[in-house]
UniProtKB/TrEMBL annotation, chains A, B:
3-dehydroquinate synthase C-terminal domain mapped to chain residues: 184-326
Protein name, entry field: 3-dehydroquinate synthase
Binding site for Zn(2+): 187, 250, 267
Role according to the record: Catalyzes the conversion of 3-deoxy-D-arabino-heptulosonate 7-phosphate (DAHP) to dehydroquinate (DHQ).
Length: 380, 380
């Protein structure tokens, strides 16, 4: 079973990856990765994830330790401070203290909320991530970014707070809707493009096996993706520099999500489109060879259906500028320069950005025409 | 002008202490302690503090930098996550980014809220403390504890987030109600008892001068108090051990505040009573010489009128047990063992605690009888 170490300035921990991790271990009374000194455990999950995996986790925890469950309804709209406050009040009512361990059982929404609750309850208690979506396993559960949304924008409040461990059980992905699985895989494509050419080659050769549920192939992809994230986060925990490369595809991707009000596309699908725009930009600047660009495009298109959506170039460019990643007026942009390699640039002009977004939107339109789908009325 | 260095694991900064710090400096365009690279400044304050000191701060900031003001009404009841969320939305609406500097202009309530907003907005931006109460100058502005209350209890959510600097202008204390000033001085008495015998001697000899507004005497007391806090926090930023000594008088003090619903006594007054209980405990254990105990009691009683209140021994003992400082069942207690010296013990029995609380309540009753004041109807 792969164990991937994450060594940041503030904490060192392991990601335990494999199958059957949520099965009661023969002879072992507790979950792999569970810290020895937890006085009690409180699990935060959503009702639908609990239905599939709650009982497995309970059994894996054994009965040597008191366990409570708190619920958050599924959906990004619950990732707000009001949910955080309600959970903190419930922790206090349960008598949770500094020795309590929180466990996040769910996707990125549950992980981000629970991690933030752990970051601020009594100024910080421990938490463990049990990610149950592909996106959460390869991305959100690793690296310690926690937080919630404001009305003004996504992830605008939060903390850096590392988990004590991450337990990524590939079995949990079996109950995940396939569209969610595919969307999460775009983060693996991202990892491959920014830093792991071998992973890229593997995905090119084995994507069909991964999508067909071949667990060895899936494990290979998830492990490599986590290793990319772990290495980047170890080098730059607080996104002072290198960590920005994880935003490849996200500058335009976030603009698409905002323009479509987070309703029409899954995050990974928006990132797929965002990567296509960034690839166009790299190619038209002459820093990315056409052959590499074509292979990237091909893999992105095979990984998910890229749903069409309605937005104008102007709107997307404007939303890109308001992205919180901007620092003092200059927009940092992650440009691909070859398979497994990106560079961070600060000199992307509005004209260049517009051209890249327009090229991407031309492809969106082509899909709409091909599928005969009408453009949604609420042009974003 | 004294400059006190605070050197913690996570940050190094200065407390600038003196008079006239909020006056526009001749020739200087900006406030002492203001970081050079702030792109904009957003001040958080309450309307009443703004009335006295808002214009001074604005002028001291000069006009080389954009300044906005956000308001929080005075009062502990506003120290909640709903205020934090509202302020974060207002920051976003103003376009605040990672280079924005927040300034907390006010007492401990404003400082704790603003510090917490700075801790979580975009996962952490810089903030500067401009404490305008004695309590905030000698205690809450230094050390990086930030946070807000839950319905379930005080300061139950928060972060450790150090300010970039603290600017403690003694002039601001001139507009502070004298009862607030005296209550804040109990924290200086606390600092003297736990770690600074020379400060204790000075306060004994010069308390009348301090209360009469002698600025040299006041500066001496504030400076020494801040040095105690800075030294303790430098040794133990996250309250793993030594920092607990700052809770001297607070274990019972917090219980009194809870029993009286935070309405009847100021924090420093409750701490005064709490210190009296702890002194009784130290004396009856035989670890604190009677002569020292008597000098401590005398100074505490001279520093504030200790208002009477209604609570039973049972209730206070029960509330003491539920204090969040407890860890896994054992109650840490800070016992005075001599002037300038305390020890942290974990073996205080309920009988000992009850006896100490009862002795303190006997004094409360004596005051009530002497002043002819009826006990409040809402016996806590
Ligand atoms: N912290 C980070 O570094 C980071 C990085 C990337 C994304 N994120 C955040 O992650 C969130 C998205 O996470 P997500 O894509 O996992 O979405 P999600 O958490 O909303 O989960 C998607 C859906 O799948 C359901 N689900 C989860 N596990 C399941 C399972 N095993 N079987 C069946 N259904 C299951 C959920 O209930 C939900 O309806 C966003 O809020 C995003 O901001 C955070
Ligand atoms: N973070 C920490 O380490 C720490 C330590 C101790 C206390 N605290 C917190 O501090 C808070 C108490 O702080 P406080 O005692 O300063 O109370 P406060 O902030 O409520 O201020 C007391 C009153 O004085 C007013 N005021 C403030 N400055 C003034 C001035 N210069 N002139 C006239 N009026 C003025 C305020 O508007 C308020 O009405 C509590 O919430 C407590 O939990 C925090
Ligand atoms: Zn992403
Ligand atoms: Zn105090």
């Amino acid at each position: 079973m792969p164990e991937i170490r994450v060594e940041t300035d503030s904490a060192h921990y392991s990601v335990h990856l494999g199958s059957g991790l949520l099965q009661p271990q023969a002879g072992a009374s507790s979950l792999v990765g569970l810290p020895a000194k937890a006085s009690r455990v409180i699990v935060v999950t959503s009702p639908e994830v609990e239905r599939f995996w709650g009982e497995s986790l309970r059994r894996a925890l054994g009965n040597g330790i008191p366990v409570n469950l708190l619920h958050v309804p599924a959906g990004e709209q619950h990732k707000r401070l009001s949910t955080v406050e309600r959970l903190c009040e419930e922790l206090a009512a349960l008598g949770a203290d500094r020795d309590t361990l929180l466990i996040a059982l769910g996707g990125g929404v549950i992980g981000d909320i629970t991690g933030f609750v752990a970051a601020i309850y009594m100024r910080g208690i421990r938490f463990l991530q049990v990610p149950t979506t592909l996106l959460a396993q390869v991305d959100s559960s690793v690296g310690g970014k926690t937080g919630v949304n404001l009305a003004a924008g996504k992830n605008l409040v939060g903390s850096f707070h590392q988990p004590v461990a991450v337990i990524a059980d590939l079995d949990t992905l079996r109950t995940l809707p396939v569209r969610e699985l595919r969307a999460g895989l775009q983060e693996s494509v991202k990892s491959a493009i920014i830093r792991d050419a071998a992973l890229f080659d593997f995905m090119e050769a084995n994507l069909d096996a991964v999508l067909a549920g071949d667990s060895a192939a899936l494990e290979r992809v998830v492990e490599s993706s986590i290793r990319v994230k772990a290495a980047v986060v170890a080098a730059d925990e607080r996104e002072g520099g290198l960590r920005m490369i994880l935003n490849f595809g996200h500058t335009v991707g976030h603009a698409i999500e905002a323009a479509t009000e987070y309703k029409h596309l899954l995050h990974g699908e928006a990132i797929g489109w965002g990567m296509l725009a960034a690839i166009h930009l790299g190619e038209s600047r002459g820093v990315l060879p056409a052959a590499d660009a074509n292979r990237m495009r091909e893999l992105i298109r095979r990984t998910t259906d890229l749903p069409n959506f309605a937005a104008t170039t102007e709107r997307l460019v404007a939303l890109t500028g308001s992205d919180k990643k901007k620092r003092s007026g200059t927009l940092s942009f992650i440009l691909p320069i070859g398979i497994g390699q990106v560079e961070i640039v600060n000199d992307v002009t509005e004209a260049e950005l517009s051209a890249a977004v327009a090229a991407m939107l031309a492809e969106v339109q082509a899909i709409s025409r091909a599928s005969g789908v009408e453009e949604p009325a609420h042009a974003g």
